[in-house]
Amino acid sequence: MPSPQQLARQMADMRAKLDEQRSALAESTFTGTAGGGMVAAVVRGTGELESVRLDPSVLDPADPEMVGDLVVAAVNVALRQAQEAAASSVGVDLGPLDPGALGLGDLRELLR
Fold first, then answer.
1. Which residue has the higher pLDDT, 106 or 74?
2. What is the pTM of this model?
3. Which residues pair with 52 in a beta bridge?
């Protein structure tokens, strides 16, 4: 079992890696599309909507609700991509530190 000093150093290293990954995620963008690419939404890793692009042919005055539905769908796709990237970035290699073996349970919760 690692000494308390080794454990503290490993946890500090893990926190630094997670902080780096959070920063990289915040700088990333994710694009979701709907309607066969007629609508595209770009979302930042922070969850902020950056932009929406509409193909002019999707703007049907007889069916204005359709464009709203397509925008919602595209934004949801982009947000899902950002969430998946965030979830996979938490899967950082923890090296020799095995939280289960140390009785720490889910280390991700401890680092929040």
1. 74
2. 0.69
3. 41
